[in-house]
Specification:
The protein has about 575 residues and is an alpha+beta fold. About 45% of the residues lie in helices and about 10% in strands. The protein is globular. Bound molecules: zinc ion.
Length: about 575
Amino acid sequence: MIPPAFVHELLTRVDIVEIVGRSVELKRAGSTWKGLCPFHGEKSPSFTVTPSRQTYHCFGCGVHGNAVGFLMEQHGMGFVEAVRDLAQQAGLAVPEEAGQPGDREEAARQKQRQLTLNDVLARAAEGYRRNLKASDRAIAYLKGRGLSGEVAARFGLGYASDGWRGLASVFASYDDPLLEESGLVIAQADESRAGDGDDDLGKKRYDRFRDRIMFPIRSVQGSVIGFGGRVLDRGEPKYLNSPETPVFSKGRELYGLFEARTAIRQRGHALVVEGYMDVVALAQAGFENAVATLGTACTAEHVQKLVRFTDSVVFSFDGDVAGRRAAGRALEASLPHAVDTRTFRFLFLPEEHDPDSFVRELGAEAFEAAIAAAVPLSRQIVARAGEDADLATAEGRARFLAQGRPLWSALPDGMLKRQLLGEFASRGALSVDELAVAWRAARPGASAGVAAGRSSMAGRPTSPSRRARPPMRKPADRIAWMLLLESRWWDTLGAADHATLCAIPGWHGELFRFLDREAAEHGAQPWAALRERLAGEPWAASALALVDAEDPAIEPLAEDLSRSLEQLRAAPERQDAMRVLGRI
Ligand SMILES: [Zn+2]
């Protein structure tokens, strides 16, 4: 656990001017420092860093906070991650990590290995960049795609030369196992490869990327974690990515997120496209807020990463069959994250286009218009449910409702979910009540049975008194109870809520930081599993008392969680938390 006293101590040891100065160009102005705000678009600096208070403040958009808050907002880190990052810079050990010495050593070893791999990848990126400068053919290719040198530099584009051991000129030892571990070099066992002419080399090692334009993939913090490579003309495969390595997992990373962070805030939304060439071409056309998945469908993990930076996401899909399929996956990935304060929209390009070709042929304005006309999530859900369903027949309506139910059920409780229930009912020619019963919906004014009906203990007799329980204690207690029972909800909360909850002094904050760490390291877990894991914590008894005091037939509802968070905003705990975060 991270004691608030440690956070205070940490904040006195780090220099906020230095932390902010890494991503914002600051100029001294008397006793403060000024720069262009990274959180909103501006031409004259209204973003101020005050060393005496160790805080930043923007007079333009009102953002405010300390070093922990800055790392969380600018780099999308969680609270624990931000504290660890700062502690490392300050040379302090985070007290909660002073657990098993074995664990600590293992963690340190792993961290060291990642740093080493990042370093190897960064050097390769540098080598690829040098190659690009020397290759007229590669330069001509990029120019032919309409890319300026400026955009190529912004994304660190490079070129992997057309030889089997191009990286031998970058690294002192081509036999270094790190080259293999980082995915740059392929080592082949014994089987001979026909026609590559290198049979005399005892062990076959060769560059994974050859004769390709290289796109370095960066983590949100900016280190190179892998590469995407695209052929210059014909050749297969057209796109090649780094394999999974200790620092790179393609189901989790988004190409361009590091470069797009500021523009995502300035434009108010993120644009998700299918390929890295699209990201770069869109940046060239002025859409610097685009990111791409890496040859995989969009996952819930991708969406979770994005919603740390913005409440509004537009998915753009190519107009072909593969694009339609990708849209289906993105829809499913967004559903659990679609709380009422977020919007997800779907942009379908004309059949012959991808974003790159669209923006080059039709221009930025046409693309802007296409974004404005993107289909909202609610319409996409109804459209998806209506696939191959003829609403003029009872059979078609039944199919529509059967296809719609899992999509609807995946939505978090809230107003959008209620609205959609009405929409499904009217298209399915049922009353809202009938559909609600069929889908076991929780509705406003629904009495007694709703909570029990959703419960696995539905066989127990329901009494109205169960529903009319006394309002449970403080909002922080209620939130803790709900998140312990439904730990998957942790990831549906925004960065601001995460920060507030984790900063609450006392055992509540410790519990929320525990949940944050568990969510990051193990994902959502059922209560039975969490109960085991929290057993050794000093606050375990308080947490167990919360859960055990509640009638087990009562299940938390997501709308109660939003209500409790709302109530927390007015509670004294929040004031205390804001003080820890340096926001008041
Ligand atoms: Zn600002």
